Amino acid sequence: MQRTVPEGRGPVRYGPPPPEPGFPVLPELAAALAAEAGHAAPEPAGGGPAVRAAACRYWGRRGLATAPDDVAAGPGGPGLLLALLGAYGGDVMLPRPCPAWWTPQIRLLGRRAFHVPTPAECGGVPDPWALMETVRRVRAEGGDPRVLLLCPADDPTGTVAPPELIREACEAAETEGLFVVSDETWRDTLHHPHDTLFVSPAEMLPERAAVLLDLAGSLLPAGLPAAALRFPDTPQGTWLRARTLDVLTATGAVVAGPVAAAAAHALAEPGAVAARARAAAALHGTVAAAAHRRLLDAGALSRPPEAGRHLYADLTPLRGGLARRGVGDAMELEDWLGARLGTPTPGGQRFADDLGAPRVRLSTAPLLGSEPEERGAALTAPDPLALPRVREALDTLAAVLAELT
What we know:
Elements lengths: L26 H9 L13 H12 L10 E4 L2 H12 L2 E6 L5 H7 L4 E5 L10 H13 L4 E6 L12 H13 L3 E5 L17 H4 L4 E6 L12 E4 L4 H17 L5 H11 L3 H27 L3 E2 L7 E5 L4 H6 L5 H12 L17 E5 L8 H9 L7 H15 L3
Parallel strand pairs: 2-3, 2-4, 4-5, 5-6
Antiparallel strand pairs: 1-7, 6-7, 8-9, 9-10
Helix pairs in contact: 1-9, 2-9, 3-8, 5-6, 10-14
């Protein structure tokens, strides 16, 4: 998150980096990539048959029957979401907080973003009653809300929305005539998959919900950008996919051929890929739980992390200690805590949260080590919390928080 003096804090390119696993690339993914390296022909806009068919099988294994003509692939989640929102039109409703890259995209398109508070139990999904009230107020004031963005397995909070909340939010969206886009990038990173029920809005609103999957969540390294969009099997879905492909074509947002081959291989979830995803989710869950305990022990507030590689901390109870160090808002907390921990700790303002509230997102990947080899060793360690690098990072977190008590 380097900044220059003239540009300050505002530009998107100085925003928080996405939570990356940082593990060594699986040899079989590298092999799939290398096997196609000599093929110069680009993938068509929306992805070739192989990657779209692989995405269909991926969703089919999760109970979402999908046809290749209802899928589009692109070079990462942000590019696909930008194309989809550009194709659909209208203002967008989002939860507060929300992923850092959502709001800038909406504003880039010249649309308005309206953030709705999330309930106490989780992030990623707005409170249904607050959603309906906000939509009606926005329309009364001349706005045009058409889309609801959700993140059932959430970045930044690391929580998973319970099925009943998903149902109520979908009912509210249907009542208000909103099209739902569900970002399910983190659905395969559940820390306790046998104890946590993930429900997709596409199961509840099959005709009015699209699903976005960025493979960087659990299947591919961030350096091989690929994502897939699942559209409803309806005339509106067919129209929307065609319009989205127009945007992808106009912007040249296509998946590189070798990356598409690696993506198709990853979406098939062969043994090594599936095992890596499970091991990574379990490792990040173990470390996130340990970091969560340090936060609570220091008196901070944080929802228990359930998915992903991050947790969201509210340091409001520690305001006195923060004030003694000249920290009065989330922006100043971002700078102070990041400097003390030696790793980016983006403040809540990055996620459309209240600037005055001292909240930050903490990522678990830096706690595992600074090099891929260190993080790879943590994947196979019988007790990752006993590793010197992990123990030292957690102790540093606890010591920094203790300064505020």
